[in-house]
């Protein structure tokens, strides 16, 4: 069960976990609809939450072979994208280029002003 926040949705997809989305606010309603349209979750409006409704939604999501198949596909696709390591590999070269305004490198980390801190090392 998830409130359908972006982080929880991402985690559920990456781990291949069937979800029951019970959105509470903001972007969670759209995220719940996206999960539903992907075929990986059940959407239960918070006004309709009862023990029986939750049990039915959880069992329906967990026992549905189409949901399991779709989750496995998405999990494989996400794993193939490379995750945070791939993102770092894409961002780090841009951080090493000179800043258009100052001409200095963008590798400055403001948190490193203390003399007791070691510089952040790139991989």
For the largest beta-sheet, the strand count, sense and barrel status come to:
2 strands, parallel
Cα end-to-end separation: 36 Å
CATH fold-level name of the domain at 6-80: Rossmann fold
Rg for CA atoms: 21 Å
Oligomer: single chain
Q: What's the CATH H-level homologous superfamily of the domain at 6-80?
A: Glycogen Phosphorylase B
**What pattern of helices and strands is seen along the backbone?**
HEHEHHH
- Overall, the morphology is elongated
The number of helical segments is: 5
The percent range for helix content is 40-55%
Largest beta sheet: strand ordering: 1-2
Total beta strand runs: 2
Mean pLDDT comes to: 85
| Low-pLDDT ranges | 108-123
Which architecture of the domain at 6-80 would the CATH scheme give at its second level?
A: 3-Layer(aba) Sandwich
Question: Could you give a quick summary of the protein structure above?
Answer:
The chain is 52% helix and 5% strand. The protein has 123 residues and is mainly alpha-helical. Strands 1-2 form a two-stranded parallel ribbon.
């Amino acid at each position: 069960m998830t409130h359908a926040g972006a982080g929880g949705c991402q985690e559920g997809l990456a781990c291949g976990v069937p979800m029951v989305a019970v959105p509470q606010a903001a972007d969670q309603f759209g995220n719940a609809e996206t999960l539903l349209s992907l075929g990986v979750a059940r959407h239960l409006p918070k006004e309709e939450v009862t023990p029986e409704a939750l049990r039915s939604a959880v069992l329906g999501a967990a026992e549905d072979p189409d949901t399991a198949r779709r989750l496995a596909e998405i999990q494989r696709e996400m794993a193939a994208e490379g995750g945070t390591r791939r993102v770092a590999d894409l961002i780090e070269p841009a951080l090493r280029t000179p800043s258009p305004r100052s001409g200095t490198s963008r590798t400055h980390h403001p948190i490193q002003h203390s003399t007791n801190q070691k510089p952040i090392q790139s991989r």
